[in-house]
Amino acid sequence: MRTIWLRVADQRGTVLVLALFIMAFLMVAGAFLLRMSSAETDISYNTVWGEGSFFAAEAGLNVTVDQIGPTTVGTLTVATTAIDGNHSYQGGSQFIGTTTQPMYAIGYGGGYVPAGYVFYTHTVTGTGTGPRNAQRQIQARALYGPMAQ
Length: 149
Description:
By secondary structure, the chain is of the alpha+beta class.
């Protein structure tokens, strides 16, 4: 009976089992931290590409607004244009109608004009795209004018 008790009380090999458990725990923790680091990297890249797509959409909006004029009636489309190797923009405009607002004359000493001036109203859209399907779209309402009646 004493020999059985001595074998149970013998602690040889305990350190090996303990070391294996600690190594397994460190391996799982390392894999978790590595995956978390990879996720943070993906998040930061997506943020950068999303912001780049937003600025590309803003460029498309500005290019479209620059092309609006007094004869722009109907739909105006700006073709897709590449900014760099990763981002591109496109734009579009839809003519909504005209509004008349009474106001003072633009020129010096013109006085108040009750008949008013005409403003052409457009809905303008800019779309920017980037890597990994990053896409942003901006919509704005633009008034072109004043135009004398």
